[in-house]
Amino acid sequence: MSFLRNRTVLGVICIALSLFICFAVTPLFNSGISKKTDIVRVARDIKAGEQITRDMVKTVEVGSYNLPDNVVRSLDAALGKYAAADMAPGDYILNTKLTDSPAAENAYLYNLTGEKQAMSVTIKSFSNGLSGKLISGDIVSVIAPDYRKMGATVIPPELKYVEVIGVTTSSGYDTDTGQGLKKEDEKQLPATVTLLVSPEQSTILAGLEADGKLHLSLVYRGSKENAAKFIEAQDKALKALYPAPAGDATKENTGAAPPTDKSSPESEGE
Questions:
Q1: CA–CA separation, 148 vs 194, rounded Å?
Q2: Where are the domains of the chain?
Q3: Cα–Cα distance for residue pair 196/234, rounded to 1 Å
Q4: In the chain, helix, strand, coil percent, each to 5?
Q5: CB–CB of 72/91 below 8 Å?
Q6: Which H or E element spans position 119?
Q7: Confidence of residue 267 (pLDDT cuts 50, 70, 90)
Q8: What does each C-alpha distance from 108 to 14, 51, 116, 177 come to in angstroms?
Q9: From CA 206, how far away is CA 167, in angstroms rounded?
Q10: Threshold 0.70, pTM exceeds
Q11: Average pLDDT value over all residues in the chain
Q12: What DSSP string describes 136-183?
């Protein structure tokens, strides 16, 4: 190794290494940095729970060096998915920020079939909404004071059994799912209750909401099977109150026996 003590030899070796780095390693490194690829980027604000549509995202060409492995590279992989987190314009879309199903706090809005509607009513006082204890799946009756300006407090036959599908604070978070709930929201009382109603029911609810006079009373909380019996009884009552025009609908003969257990609508007075 005595030749390494020769300054001339060391100089030649250093020069050779420098040339190798400049003309071999550096070009390879630069080519890797300059390589381009297409990715999907956010075009406008997207809130958690929103479904990704074409106007929300765009494809852009960027350098591929140091990109996250989970960045979404094609529109097809993003469109139709749901945002799992808030995203701002310019953000890369990562597959960890996408989900195949809507966020829990508004999932019920994606289960509507067109036959019924989701409608929210305001809880104007603590007692009007069962002291903040209502949850999704509850069956409630809507009590209308001074109904239709007639001086009587009644439960309209159209609103005897109605299903609760959401309970929401004034800041917009659903209290019974806990999803997206911030610490400052934990002590907030429900501001609205969202009900699953028919068009006829929604018309009556809109009038009660405008008058600012309605109370909700809990009828049933329990299994989905028993809750469905109450809704079935209400649907039958609506068909009797609002019969379909002759020739516009086929008559149904379900033959279903009325609920007989103590949690059924017919057994309330027993």
A1: 22
A2: 36-99, 105-267
A3: 12
A4: 35, 20, 40
A5: no
A6: strand 117-122
A7: low
A8: 70, 14, 12, 11
A9: 18
A10: no
A11: 79
A12: TT-EEEEEBTTGGGSS--B--GGGSSEEEEEEEETTS-BTTT-TT--G
- Residues 124, 128, 131: CA angle, nearest 5 degrees: 110
Q: What are the pLDDT digits (tens) for 188-214?
A: 678 889 999 999 999 999 999 888 888
Q: Which two tokens stand for residue 143?
A: 């009590």
The Cα 41–Cα 72 span in angstroms is: 8
Axis crossing angle, helix 224-241 with helix 199-211, rounded to the nearest 10: 90
DSSP 28-89: HHHHHHH-EEEEEEE-S-B-TTPBP-GGGEEEEEEE-TT--TTB--SGGGTTT-EESS-B-T
Residues making up the chain, counted from first to last? 270
The CATH number that domain 36-99 falls under is 3.90.1210.10
First-to-last C-alpha distance (Å) of the chain: 106
